[in-house]
Write a structure and sequence with these properties.
Layout (H helix, E strand, L loop, with lengths): L7 H14 L8 E9 L6 H15 L8 E9 L4 H13 L5 E2 L4 H14 L3 E3 L12 E6 L1 H14 L4 E6 L3 H5 L1 H4 L8 E6 L5 H10 L4 E5 L5 H10 L8 E4 L18 E6 L6 H16 L12 H21 L20 H9 L2 E4 L2 E6 L2 E4 L2 E6 L4 E7 L6 E2 L14 E6 L7 E2 L12 E2 L1 H14 L1 E6 L17 H7 L5 E2 L7 H4 L3 E2 L4 E3 L1 E6 L17 H24 L4 E2 L16 E4 L3 H12 L11 H30 L10 H5 L6 E2 L5 H8 L3 H12 L9 H10 L3 E5 H8 L5 E4 L6 E3 L2 E2 L5 H15 L1 H10 L22 H39 L8 H12 L7 E3 L29 H5 L34
Parallel strand pairs: 1-2, 1-3, 3-4, 4-5, 5-13, 6-7, 6-8, 8-9, 9-10, 17-20, 17-21, 27-28
Antiparallel strand pairs: 10-14, 11-12, 12-13, 14-15, 15-16, 18-19, 22-31, 23-30, 24-28, 24-29, 25-26, 26-32
Helix pairs in contact: 2-11, 3-4, 11-12, 16-17, 16-18, 16-26, 17-18, 18-26, 20-21, 26-27
Length: 947
């Protein structure tokens, strides 16, 4: 087609296209950039973000369609500024258009001095401690004076008046200088402490001792876990402490040990990982690092340093794109040796300084190389995770979106609805006053506790009484709850305060705090009347077994005394000749045994009754029996006398029931519980046979034994013949005010009172921690004493429990004395046998010496003596003749004396043969008889006691 035929419109379009395409060639096809990282950043998140940003820009042909970025990365030691400067100069010689990093403040200052001298743009992501303008620096880290303003706004919102600032590096004090220079009119008290990993615990201990509970922490992220460990070791991980971290990477810390103790931990972040744009970048970056075989990067969050590095590369690329549209850019030979600045550097830095875009770290805008536009998200640690609770923008105050996350008193206006039941002494109505507020209408233990908790946790409250007046129980037929539980399930109340028992059924539908009081079920009963005195009360000091044992001991001691007296030869004595009548037919001289059956029992009876008898045992064995019997009677009589005094002075009360088993085993005394209460639920659901039996009785009893209120149950108990099963704390309150009531038995179970909240309520854990603190300080016990014991309404009673009652003495108490008696009797029998054997042996020896007496063996002698001792009749006397005559013995000169003349004529020989001789053969002396001199000739014997 000829040129003249070309339409003018097409020619205009061609020229316009040419004008748009020509500037695209103002940038070279390769743009070199330099990056300097410290050794500890090698292969880290910041390096991955830098590489990924370059990779993504090169792939995006809409941003720099004809230009590709090529990077030169160098690594230096964090404390080696000399080699850092040399590596920056080597990058300059290679023709870099900009230098990125390092993030260390000291190294960054050295690198910036080189870039500033050569007019090369320096893009930084470090904390900027210098507030002066620097021409060739672009810093994406938020300006420090703006961050300090954000910290001040949060501290003012939290109403902090005393705070400790812990910093690690020397520049930390310079960084937070605005916080230290608090206005003079503010009430903020600041304590500065520099710490390192070796002194963390010492500094925290000092802060704890000074009762500083608000702490600002500016430490290295790498040392943060050591710092958190020190918090745990010093037990500073509770709701009283509030930690404010200056780092933007709090989401990367392991805070598992702090989630469930309601520890206040707050920090800002610059990357909102909840945004869709950020999530897509993180996923793509994770795939990129996998392909590049770099260190793994978490795809769920990103460190602030890495995000700022990513945004700095994009800020450079956007500045190049803007420059390309109006200027051409060429790189001249620049080196550190010649110190000749780059003429294109000023234009490039100006274009970069004017860019505005939205990056990973939020909105980005610069003024004189400093970032003036950004957004900070305020994070707060909650039980499940870190949660965003507010935002901060430069030039604006902090905007708290979740005020309930902070529970400092006075920081918010939260009013909770508290439901309760009127119950002494927990919740009671005050005397009416027209000017009283809602919370001033009530008084009691739970009201005082609620006031303490409201002050500690930080909330206002409004009290409402439950409509049906019940605590709450489930209807097994309909499955519906009533009372307080129903109110909480329907979210009509935020808290339930009162004598609310924690049990499994309620815990399954509502939440409870830690118990503020422990208790159990007990039995309330009317004080029984005094026992009427019985006619035979004097028998009560000793038990039935003791009385029977004493009676047995009495007969055993008497029989033993009688038998041993017959058995032993030393109980046979010669009677007084002038007092005892003798029959002519009997032998002239007889030995008499005074310890016959009647005398033996008379001796035992007199000794038992502490009286004399006139009969005394003569032999060693019988005296042992007498002595051990005296000891026995001493113990028995003393014990009886002592316990009789106790029985006569102590008033004993007889209670028809002593425990739950007694109550369950009878049907004469009805018993019941509070209707729709935890006590009723306990018996209904119990698997213990005794309690199941009690529940069947209560359920089937007509009329009903259940009462709607405690007052009704107490009234029925006072009327008599009724036992009320109630909780021990309420029972203790009632018993101390009415002396006609008493507690029967111990606790049937163990449980606790707690404050109830709806399921999943955020107030439960906070109130639980406050309750634990009150318990540790003893304040709950002080409230208990106030409302239970110090009201001036307690009655004065003379409690006579089982410990003050006199009990009958049993075998366990004085059974040992019977053992002593048996041992003594056995020993006496042994002595009697020894006496018997000794006497028989002596008689046998004497007969052997006699030439006229037939010789007998010891066994024959013992047999004869034993036969005589065992005679039941005619055995009260025995002959007193010697076994031998001294005049008949050879070698003995016999001189008669007047005493040798018998008082009566000699009997015929036939009669002499019939004289008893101890069962032995009769032996006589033909001319003279000598009497036995073993006993005194005139023994003092009362003739009235002779048979």
């Amino acid at each position: 087609m000829p040129l003249g035929t070309i339409p003018c419109s097409l020619l205009f379009c061609f020229l316009l296209f040419s004008l748009q395409v020509l500037p695209s060639c103002s940038l070279p096809p390769i743009v070199r950039i330099g990056a300097i990282f410290t050794e500890n950043q090698k292969g880290g998140a910041a390096e991955v973000a830098f590489r990924y940003a370059v990779y993504k820009i090169n792939r995006d042909k809409t941003l720099l369609p004809h230009t590709s970025l090529v990077y030169d990365m160098q690594y230096v030691h964090i404390n080696d500024s000399f080699h850092a400067s040399k590596k920056a100069c080597s990058q300059v010689r290679n023709g870099v258009y900009a230098v990125f990093g390092p993030s260390d403040p000291l190294l960054g200052a050295h690198i910036h001095s080189i870039c500033d001298a050569l007019d090369i743009p320096h893009l930084e992501t470090r904390v900027d401690l210098d507030s002066d303008f620097r021409e060739f620096s672009i810093n994406l880290y938020p300006a420090q004076h703006l961050l300090n303003k954000a910290f001040e706004d949060v501290m003012a919102f939290l109403n902090w008046t005393k705070v400790a600032i812990i910093y690690e590096e020397d520049y930390g004090l310079i960084k937070l200088r605005e916080l230290v220079r608090a206005p003079q009119d503010s009430n903020l008290e600041i304590h500065l402490r520099q710490a390192d990993p070796g002194s963390y615990r010492m500094i925290l201990k000092e802060i704890k001792s000074k009762e500083i509970q608000n702490i600002v922490i500016d430490t290295k992220p790498s040392n943060m876990q050591e710092f958190l460990k020190g918090i745990l070791q010093l037990q500073m991980n509770d709701y009283k402490y509030h930690y404010f971290f200056t780092t933007f990477d709090i989401e990367t810390f392991d805070l598992e040990d702090f989630k469930y103790n309601f520890v206040n931990m707050t920090a800002f972040r610059v990357v909102d990982i909840d945004q869709l744009f950020v999530k897509e970048v993180l996923r793509d970056m994770a795939r990129f690092q996998a392909n590049q075989e770099l260190s793994p990067v978490n795809s769920s969050f990103i460190q602030a340093e890495a995000a700022l590095m990513y945004d700095s590369v994009y800020a450079f690329a956007i500045g190049l794109q803007t420059l390309e549209q109006s200027h051409s850019l060429k790189m001249s030979n620049v080196s550190c040796d010649r110190e000749q600045p780059w003429d294109g550097g000023l234009s490039l830095i100006n274009y970069i300084n004017s860019v505005e875009f939205k990056g990973l770290s939020g909105p980005i805008e610069f003024k004189e190389g400093k970032r003036i536009r950004f957004k900070l998200d305020l994070l707060k640690l909650k039980q499940h995770a870190l949660v965003k609770v507010g935002e901060w923008h430069p030039g604006m105050d902090v905007n708290i979106t979740d005020r309930n996350a902070f529970f400092d008193h006075g920081s918010m206006n939260v009013t909770l609805v508290v439901t309760t039941i009127l119950e002494q002494p927990y919740v009671m109505l005050k005397p009416f006053s027209p000017h009283s507020h809602n919370q001033d209408l009530y008084e009691g233990f739970c009201i005082d506790l609620l006031k303490e908790l409201a002050t500690m946790v930080g909330f206002e409250y409004r009290i409402e009484l439950v409509p049906d007046g019940k605590y709450g129980a489930i209807d097994l037929e309909t499955g519906e709850w009533n009372g307080i539980v129903r109110q909480l399930m329907d979210k009509k109340a935020d808290l339930a305060v009162g004598s609310m028992t924690i049990n499994y059924a309620r815990e399954s539908v509502i939440d409870f705090t830690k118990p503020f009081m422990n208790l159990g079920i007990s039995i309330l009963f009317k004080v029984p009347t005094d026992k009427e005195s019985a006619f035979f009360t004097f028998l009560d000091p000793l038990g039935v077994k003791i009385w029977l044992s004493t009676l047995g001991a009495f007969f055993m001691a008497g029989c033993t005394m009688y038998l041993l007296a017959k058995f032993t030869p030393y109980e046979w004595v010669r009677p007084h000749p002038g007092k005892v009548p003798w029959n002519y037919q009997k032998p002239p001289k007889q030995l008499v045994n005074l310890m016959n059956m009647s005398n033996a029992f008379w001796f035992v009876t007199g000794t038992l009754l502490r009286q004399g008898t006139g009969v005394s045992p003569q032999a060693t064995s019988t005296r042992i029996v007498g002595g051990i019997w005296w000891f026995f009677t001493l113990i028995i009589i003393s014990s009886y006398t002592a316990n009789l005094a106790a029985f006569l002075t102590v008033e004993r009360m007889i209670t028809p029931i002593e425990n739950a088993e007694d109550l369950a085993s009878q049907t004469e005394i009805p018993y019941g519980t509070l209707e729709s209460g935890s006590t009723m639920t306990f018996f209904r659901d119990s698997m213990i046979e005794t309690y199941k039996k009690m529940w069947r009785f209560m359920e089937n009893r007509k009329p009903s034994v259940f009462v709607p209120t405690y007052e009704e149950g107490i009234k029925k108990v006072l009327e008599g013949n009724y036992a009320f099963l109630m909780e021990s704390t309420m029972l203790d309150y009632v018993v101390q005010r009415d002396c006609n009531l008493t507690q029967i038995g111990g606790l049937l179970d163990s449980k606790g009172y707690g404050i109830a909240t709806p399921m999943g309520s955020p107030w439960r854990d906070k109130i639980s921690l406050a309750i634990l603190e009150l318990q540790e300080k003893g304040e709950i016990q002080m409230l208990y004493d106030k409302w239970w014991k110090n009201t001036g309404e307690t009655c004065t009673r003379n409690d006579k429990g089982k410990e003050s009652k006199a009990n009958s003495l049993g075998v366990d108490n004085i059974g040992g004395v019977f053992v002593v008696l048996l041992c003594g009797l056995a020993f006496a029998v042994l002595i009697a046998i020894m006496e018997f054997c000794y006497n028989s042996k002596r008689n046998a020896i004497a007969e052997r010496r006699s030439p006229i007496t037939p010789h007998q063996s010891i066994c024959s002698e013992m047999g004869g003596e034993l036969c005589f001792a065992l005679q039941c009749r005619g055995s009260r006397q025995r002959p007193a003749l010697r076994r031998q005559c001294s005049k008949c013995l050879s070698g003995v000169t016999y001189v008669p004396s007047p005493l040798d003349i018998p008082p009566h004529p000699l009997q015929p020989p036939a009669m002499r043969r019939n004289v008893p001789s101890n069962g032995l053969s009769p032996r006589t002396c033909p001319t003279h008889i000598q009497f036995k001199e073993d006993q005194p000739p005139f023994h003092n014997i009362d003739p009235s006691r002779q048979d």
